[in-house]
Amino acid sequence: MAAAKRPALPVILLANDLLDGDVVFAAGDANGLHWSRDPGAALVGDDDATADRLDAFAAAELGNQHVVDAYLVDVAIEDGVPVPRHYRERMKTTGPSIRRDLGKQAELPLAPAFLRA
């Protein structure tokens, strides 16, 4: 069986928390990875080694039933923040498009690029 095609670099890893369904992002450093609800804190995989590390973290977390629907998303770096290139993932990072007073856009200081339509 062929491996799934990886999106173009750079990438971030997003998933849904298994207990509350909220979108979470793999964040961390050389000491380890963890889940964050802040899209600006997402670890950017800008090389194959980091993307592989994010893939391995996704597999482990799916296996441990901490998250569901974990996948790599291609991003652009705007204002120093990773912003998903595709509309679907951008919506997942911010929250409802019709209510800017709800979701992550109301709770977190997001880069303007996150909030453009």
Structure keywords:
117 residues, 5 strands, globular, 5-stranded antiparallel beta sheet, alpha+beta
Written description of the protein model:
It holds the Pfam family DUF2849. With 117 residues, the protein is of the alpha+beta class. It is 27% helix and 30% strand. The chain contains 4 helices and 5 strands. It has a 5-stranded antiparallel beta sheet with strand order 3-2-1-4-5, with helices on one face. Strand 4 (67-78) and strand 5 form a beta hairpin. The longest helix is centred in the middle third of the chain and has 16 residues, at 48-63.
| Helix-residue proportion | 25-40%
Which class of secondary structure composition applies to the elements?
alpha+beta
Strand order of the largest sheet: 3-2-1-4-5
Distance between the termini: 38 Å
Rg measurement, Å: 14 Å
Main sheet properties? 5 strands, antiparallel
Are there runs of 5+ residues with pLDDT below 50, and where? none
**Can you tell me the overall shape?**
globular
Order of helices and strands: EEEHEEHHH
The average pLDDT value, as a whole number, equals 85
Strand and helix layout:
Blueprint: E1 11-17, E2 23-29, E3 32-36, H1 48-63, E4 67-78, E5 81-84, H2 87-94, H3 104-107, H4 112-115
Antiparallel strand pairs: 1-2, 1-4, 2-3, 4-5
